[in-house]
Amino acid sequence: MKKTISFALLHFGVAFSITYLLTGSLVIGGAVALIEPAINTVVFYFHEKAWKRAESKQVQLAV
């Protein structure tokens, strides 16, 4: 979970910076920075779970 939170904070900063540079708007930059990384963080969490499950199945098949 620490990895997910770290990723979310990093993603927030990137999303805000890029959106602000493109639009010049603090409001739009803040909105995009809150919405997009929040959704992406949830997707990332489930992606990691699925990836670990797939890796676990490969190890079981190798044995």
Word description of this protein:
- With 63 residues, the protein is mainly alpha-helical.
- The chain has one domain.
- It is built from 2 helices and no strands.
- The longest helix has 37 residues, at 26-62.
- The two termini are 29 Å apart.
Short description:
The protein is mainly alpha-helical and 63 residues long. It has two helices and no strands.
Order of helices and strands: HH
What overall geometry do the principal axes of the alpha carbons give?
rod-shaped
What is the tally of helical segments? 2
Please compute the radius of gyration using only Cα atoms: 16 Å
State the end-to-end distance: 29 Å
Low-confidence stretches: none
Q: How does the major sheet shape up?
A: none
Helix content: over 70%
What is the total domain count?
1
Secondary structure category: mainly alpha
β-strand amount: under 5%
**What's the count of strands?**
0
Q: What average pLDDT do the residues reach?
A: 89
